[in-house]
C-alpha cells in the first residue's frame, strides 16, 4: 500500500525499564512508524503492583496518616519509595520520548497507569482504541512460564487489535542449515 | 525512520485457507509492507498433517504400491485426495499473490512445506532468516486452549524474530467506557 493511502493509526507501545521494552520501541520506530505518517504513537507505562509494595507494610491501608496504628514505614521512607517509583517512570518515559525525537508529524503521547500490567495493557488497548499493540518480550520463556505470568502472552491472547511481540534477536545457532 | 533509510526486510507471512490468515496478510500489506520498499515478502503455506490423513488408511505406509496388503484406499481415491490437497494449496497461494499484485519492487516469494504447522513455521522463520513473522489468529481463544494447540501462541513463544499476531478486529463491547 502506498504511503499516501495509509490511514491514521494509533500504535500503543508498552514501555518499562527493561532493555526488551526499549528494543521493542526502537524496532517499531524503524519498522512500523514512519516519519511523515499521521500515526499517533502512545507510550504506555504501567506501574506494576510491586511499585506499591511498601503499602503492604501499612496494615491499615491508610498511607497518609503516619499516626495510624499499624503504620510501619516512616513518612520519610514512604516518600522516598514513592519518589523512586516516580523517578523510574519519568526516566523511562523521557528515554522513550528521546528515541522518538526524530519523528516528524507523528504525534507522541504518554500515558501512565497503575495496576497489573497485563490487565491494564489490555484495558488501555481498548480504551485508547489502538490499531496495534507493541510489546517487548524477555527471552527466558521456560523460566517465565514456570515462575511468572507472561504479560506478552496474556495480551496476545486477550487484546482484540493486532499484537506485535518483539523479541531481541540473537544470532541463530546453526543458521543456514 | 525515513523510508529511505530502512533496510531490506524479510517478512514471512504464514498463510492458509482461513479468513484469519487472509486478513493477517491484508493487514500486513496495509501496515507493514510498502510498495516501494526493498522488502521481501515470503508467503509460507504449511500442509498440516491432516492433509495426509489418508495415509493412516494405509497400514503399511507404502502408498505408492496399491498391491501391498493393508492398502485400503484405491489408487484413484488416493490420487483424488492428493489432488484436493494440492488444489487447496494452489488456491491459497494464488489468492495471496493476487492480494500482493499492487506491490512494486517488493519481491514476493512462496514456500510450501509439510508438517506440524507450529514446528515448521518456527523452523522456516529461522531458515529463511525472517525479520518478522506475521500470523493470523482465530478469535475463539477459550475453545482453542481447551481443544487445540494454538499455533500463534506457540510461535510467539518460540520464534526468535518479532512476531505479529493479527486478530480480526471486532467492535469493542462497551467501547468508550
UniProtKB/TrEMBL annotation, chains A, B:
<dbReference type="InterPro" id="IPR006016">
    <property type="entry name" value="UspA"/>
</dbReference>
<protein>
    <recommendedName>
        <fullName>UspA domain-containing protein</fullName>
    </recommendedName>
</protein>
<dbReference type="InterPro" id="IPR006015">
    <property type="entry name" value="Universal_stress_UspA"/>
</dbReference>
<dbReference type="InterPro" id="IPR014729">
    <property type="entry name" value="Rossmann-like_a/b/a_fold"/>
</dbReference>
<feature type="domain" description="UspA">
    <location>
        <begin position="9"/>
        <end position="167"/>
    </location>
</feature>
<dbReference type="Pfam" id="PF00582">
    <property type="entry name" value="Usp"/>
</dbReference>
